[in-house]
Amino acid sequence: MDGVTPGSSWGDAPPIIGPDSAIENTLPAPAPAPRTREVRDHILSPSVVKKFALAVSKKKRAGKFTRVSEEFVVACQAEFEGRLRGLVNTLDVEAVTKLVPVDGMKFTTKVARDKAAAKLEELAIAIVHGKVMRHPSLGKTLMD
User: Fold this and answer.
1) How far, in Å, are 3, 6, 70, 102 from residue 37 at the CA level?
2) Nearest-angstrom CA–CA distance, 90 and 115
3) Partner of 112 for a Cys bridge, out of 45, 58, 71, 108, CB 3.0 to 4.6 A?
C-alpha cells in the first residue's frame, strides 16, 4: 500500500519522487541561468577607466596590478555620481524652478559647458587615480 492514501485508488495517488526513484533520476538537469550584463547608462567609460587604472598601476605602483574588476569600475562610477549629486544637492534649484518655470531655457553657454566638461574629466581622472593609489597590494586585480 505504499503511495496510496486511504480512500483513494492506485490511479489517484501522486508518484513518489525521491533520490532513489526512477522518475527523479531521469529528469534533465536544469539549465544554468544565462549570464546577462546589467544594462545601464555609464557616466564613465568602463574601457577608459580600466586602461587608465592599469597605466597608473604601471607607472606609480610598479605594475602591481594587471587586471581591473568590474566592481572597481562600478565603484569609480559610484564615487563620480556621488560627487555630482553632492554638488547639485548643495543648490536649491528645485525650489527656485517651482516658483519661476524655466521651460527649456539654457542658462549656460557652450564655453561654460566645455569648461564644465573639462572639470568633469579632471574629476574622473582624480577618482580613478586615487582608487588605484589607495588599493592594497593584494593580488593582481584592482577590486573594490
Assistant:
1) 46, 53, 11, 38
2) 20
3) 108
Query: What distance in Å separates the CA atoms of residue 15 and residue 3, rounded to the nearest whole number?
Result: 7
**Percent above pLDDT 90 for the chain:** 47
Tell me the whole-structure pTM to 2 decimals: 0.64
* 55 backbone φψ class: left, alpha, beta (φ>0; ψ -120 to 50): alpha
Q: Cβ of 27: how many Cβ atoms within 10 Å? A: 9
Residues 19-44: tens digit of each pLDDT: 565 555 565 666 766 655 555 678 89
> If you write DSSP's letter for every residue of 23-61 in order, what string do you get?
HHHHSPPPPPPPP-PPP---SS-HHHHHHHHHHHHHHHS
Distance between CA atoms of 141 and 65, rounded to whole angstroms?
6
